[in-house]
Amino acid sequence: MNLQSDPDFRDLAAFVRVVDCGSISAAARALSVTKSVVSRRLKRLEERLGVQLVERSTRSLRITSSGEVLYQRSRPALEALEAAHEEVREGAKAVGGLVRIAAPPDVGGDVLPWVLTGFAERHPDVEVEVFLTREEGDLIANGYDLAIRGGRQPDSALVIRLMNASPFILVASPAYLARAGRPTQAADLAHHRRLVFLRHGKRFLWPTETGGHATMDACIRSDDLRMLRKLCELGAGIACLPADATRGALASGALEHVLPGLERRGSSLYILQTASAYLRPSVRALRDHLVDFFRQPSAFEEADGDT
User: Comparing C-alpha atoms, which of 251, 249, 186, 193 is closest to residue 219?
Assistant: First the structure.
């Protein structure tokens, strides 16, 4: 392809976006155009090159060996071009624009308010849209710039950065402990009402005094940590919850730490971003702020102290 005679890169950009998104429909949504426009650009590019870049069917799309070569060589070039345009547009302006981030409901409700408050003070020109969801879909296809996810992440074309691993601790309300008594050893938990977290449909294992983990029967089970914390605050029983999600309630006296020597390591949190050689300044700023926040537990404790 003679770039001098064909300076329009939209066909190539459409092809790269199709591969990124995995389908013509998703690419059309990402580019804010119709499916027919994307199909036409892809066909035009294939005709100019004289090779088939993707094999299409009614249900699937597969990149060919020729398409893979073009994708691997052209994607970095397009990213560099976008970066150059962005630098020219932004010039010396402060970080600004829109960042869209997805997070699990419990992380979004319990942790992100502290994070975003500090971020907004530092970068007042950045708009942030937060989506509380457990969906595991592709970032680009869903229109997110960043995503927070818990647990081990599969190999991916996304950049994954570890943030933290909050321990799980046992907590209960003062009213519940006054009514049911305070356990003094792990064996006492068998005589208490237990609120158990469901992770991927399975009961989260509670710590034991021997350093192991045990399955606990429950009076209430839920896959939402915020719901379990609220039930706990209302006196429904004892729960094993992330320390990060309970610090505010512990500081205010709404919850009390039960059996302090008993805790277990929770799943690490990861921050995912698109596998791009260039991130917009606003996206990079929020990503770095998230990572820094979770590396400094004192920041969370100071925020809790203000409540």
Answer: 193
